[in-house]
Request: fold
Amino acid sequence: MKKISVLLLIFLVLTVSSVSANGGNEKKRIYNIGVVLSDGRVSFQKNFVKHAEDYLDTKSNDAVRYNLSVVDAENNVSVQNSQIEKLITEADAVICFPVNREETGNLIKKIGKSGSPCVLIGNSPDTEDVGDYANVCFIESDFEKCGELMAEVIDRVPGDCDANGDGVISCLLIRGEGTESDFRGKAAIAFLEENGKHTECVLEKSANWQRDNAREICQGALQKFGKGIDVVICDNDDMALGVLESIESAGRKVGRDIFLIGCDADDDALSVIKSGRMTGTVLNDVTGQSETACDTIISMLKGDEVEKKIVFEYQNICFI
Reply:
């Protein structure tokens, strides 16, 4: 009888300890965070999702779990609006890459009125639009600074990237789309001009961030302008890699008779730069932006106040 009582006592102690360790059998809190991409083909956005998933794994524990659900608007404003409307009712928070700047203000109002915590990335709206709602934060990069760093890559090349030696740095600008594209390449040319470099833009055209589009644009430009193009400046590395295909197909060589600059510092681009087939790129800190977006969302879910606008700086990477 005494043996049974002792065993029963041990069982009760272990049971109480188990309940206590699990917070009184409380269930793990699971937060579902919706991510709305403007274009899932863009490397920066794909890398953002990967880093965010990895980072949120480190933030999850026995008491809380953060899950990502990702949708792609495929550059369609109507599709993105429908995705946002669904997520602000079904998810606990939203991270969104707006399709275009014109629509960002409407997204802010829609999300702001819902009360759902949200971080918007890229295609900067007017600052006052962000400030209207405590549940909406905006992350962007210093696009003009990016242009200046692109110009610094050009400036570090012997001969200032004047491949044909005519005294003019003739540039082909291949843009993405949105606010950042309005500043990067143009800021690079403006910076060079302000620092005494005779520069001209022979053609400026949007490839909408896509490698195939950039390859076709560059192919046509090389056929039209030939040696009249000294430098190709691309708003992201995906497009720069497409341009590289056109350059090499035309029998030209980066670093000898043409120069090529991208942005983002993707792994593929860094490999090509180190091999001498691309002049340089500018680091767009996707790791920092993804972690900051996640930290901001977590803070808002806790009810903490957050910064309304967070700006990231670029760094240039050049191998000559």
